[in-house]
């Protein structure tokens, strides 16, 4: 059973002259009044009484008073807490008269409960850190988020490369009617050399013809002297003429052109191969991108499962990128009532034995927000004591000049009764 405040009595604390209050056991108790009347002093006194000297005001005694501050709080677990005297000595007793001290109070009083706005005013990441700490999954979630960010960055880089490869491939030229592989010049040179060899043989035969032709001339001039020699030369000439008569030289012009054009041809072939490789690379990076996307989804699902299986203080709470979310919305996107509910739920989870919270300056909340928050508190069996610059019906008690209205003997009888927050199902 969580501990709540049954009653409080304060005298000469900060702006308080004398205040008595019995807050509603469940729901919202609003301390109203105008500015500088002592409303916040009531919350400060509660925090000091229960939280110890670290909450002690720098000037605890009411200005102009010769009487030392006196604080008394009765809790529903039977413990009575008192601070009084010049040194504000602490006295803690239970219903049996057994004495205790600050250590006993610390066991069931949550520090954030004494100052809920301190938690509310934290950054979203600080709130998330507190939540992860109390549900015990912070380290695991951090590892998953680190892995998700790493995969996301990797996927982004892969996607950019895939786009660049695809764009590069589209911008590259394509040549039709060219071989699939680069052509070798050595074969063409060999063919050229064969033709030149055959043409050389032809030339040799032409030279032979010319030689015998000259011999024939010589023989003719010496015909008279060597008819036999003339006839032999004539016969040789005849034979040589027949041998050279039908010779036809082959052209190497086409091969020479091919040799000249081979580098241009190979340039086109390599361009086609480069484009094909770029397209293959782009497709490979797209496949990697898809695979990384699947891994990211797996990590995100693992995060969802981790938080889904955790003992969360409130349904709808989650953490994304180190920030606290409620029903998928960031802190600044949820309503004032939802902020109060989320903060109270997390603070309660920090110490389930603490059944109350203190809130200052609720004038920023409209009455509908207060009503929603009050109903939720009642449904949860929680107690909240808050201040608000107002004297309206939403206030449970009014503070005037450091006094609760029901403590002022000169007040009218109808004002001596402490107002209570209207209950209802949330």
Provide an overview of this structure.
Keywords: Coiled coil. It holds the Pfam family AAA_23. Helix content is 49%, strand content 16%. The chain is of the alpha+beta class. A 6-stranded antiparallel sheet has the order 2-1-4-5-6-7. It has a 5-stranded mixed sheet with strand order 11-12-3-13-14, sandwiched between helices. A 3-stranded antiparallel sheet has the order 8-9-10. α6 runs antiparallel to α8. The longest helix is centred in the middle third of the chain and has 57 residues. The two termini are 21 Å apart.
CATH architecture of the domain at 5-109 and 351-415: 3-Layer(aba) Sandwich
Give the name of the CATH superfamily of the domain at 5-109 and 351-415. Answer: P-loop containing nucleotide triphosphate hydrolases
Portion in helices:
40-55%
Oligomer: single chain
Classified by CATH, the class of the domain at 5-109 and 351-415 is Alpha Beta
